[in-house]
Write a structure and sequence with these properties.
The protein is α/β, with parallel strands linked by helices and about 300 residues long. It has 10 helices and 13 strands. The chain has a 5-stranded parallel beta sheet with strand order 11-10-12-1-13, with helices on both faces. Strands 3-2-4-5 form a 4-stranded parallel beta sheet, with helices on both faces. A 4-stranded parallel beta sheet has the order 7-6-8-9, with helices on both faces. The longest helix has 16 residues. The C terminus is likely disordered.
Length: about 300
């Protein structure tokens, strides 16, 4: 059975950068805190916490050298300001592409535009975008109802997008918004790694008998990869680690496509690939000339 690995599988630039900053900060001394998970992946979170970085629910008063590490998804402005007042040193690991969304939202608000965010309302990134603004924003989720009445009262608006959203769903929502808001500016802030992953996931499920999507159940971008894959290939499976693989997934399959969310470590993907090889290998192992093929493309 062939194993074909997506070129875009695994860590994106923003996650690599955030993990690197976290590990470098861990070696700098002092107490280091995070308001939540560095990224949405349990293995990465465990690695970070193993270096002594503590996860907290809110900042509080204290003494000594204290560092607040801002996660890849970003944070509200007021939260950062409060932490500084309390004496924390801020180390910002926000993804640069998310920071770009923050900048757009603030600048458009200054120009008098109502900011509309297409994204998951309770996702950390969306909360961070909302938290850049002084005025109330409008959040429209990919599965949510279009708030026609609220939109019709807006004179001019700008639209930004959570960086990991599905492009097709965003386009559909944008068309609905345009019917209600005539003076509208749109900023396609879906990040490049997300676009690359979604382009590959449009073709891989068609070219492979089975699709395995690797990533945490808390990962929004992994969920979207799975959703797209499932519409194209019913034999699409979303797993977090090799332990969730089942032999039945590969029954009568000649090829398996593998991709991984933006927060999935390469180590996890390698472990999944090796386990698939074990599950699909004939008893006694592949023999010369028996037609068994194990290929990995990345």
């Amino acid at each position: 059975m062939k194993i074909n690995v997506a070129k875009s599988a695994g860590f994106c630039f923003g996650v690599k950068r955030a993990v690197r900053i976290a590990l470098e900060t861990a070696g700098s001394g002092g107490k280091i805190y995070m308001l939540g998970d560095i990224v949405h992946n349990e293995d990465v979170v465990s690695q970070i916490e193993g270096k002594g970085i503590q996860k907290i629910k809110k900042t509080g008063a204290g003494t000594g050298k204290r560092i607040l590490l801002i996660r890849a998804h970003g944070e509200r402005l007021n939260t950062v300001k409060k932490a500084r007042r309390l004496g924390y040193t801020i180390v910002d690991a926000t993804c640069p592409m998310v920071k770009e969304i923050h900048t757009i939202a603030r600048e458009m608000e200054k120009k008098g535009y109502t900011v509309i965010i297409i994204g998951d309302a309770y996702h950390d990134e969306v909360r961070g975008i909302k938290g850049q603004l002084k005025t109330k924003s409008v959040v429209i989720g990919p599965r949510g109802r279009i708030p026609v009445h609220a939109l019709s009262r807006i004179k001019k608006a700008c639209v930004v997008v959570q960086s990991t959203q599905n492009r097709e769903k965003v386009s559909a929502i944008l068309r609905a918004i345009k019917k209600q808001v005539k003076n509208l500016r749109f900023f396609n802030t879906i990040c490049r790694p997300t676009k690359a992953k979604q382009e590959e996931i449009k073709t891989m499920p068609v070219k492979n008998d089975v699709m395995i999507i690797i990533g945490s159940k808390a990962s929004a971008n992994t969920r979207r990869l799975f959703e797209i894959s499932k519409t194209l290939n019913k034999r699409s499976y979303w797993i977090q680690s090799k332990s969730e693989l089942k032999p039945d997934y590969f029954r009568r399959a000649k090829s398996a496509g593998i991709t991984a969310g933006a927060s999935t470590p390469e180590r996890t993907t390698r472990e999944v690939i090796e386990h698939i090889k074990k599950l699909t290998r004939k008893k006694g192992g592949p023999k010369k000339g028996d037609g068994s093929i194990f290929s990995q493309k990345k």
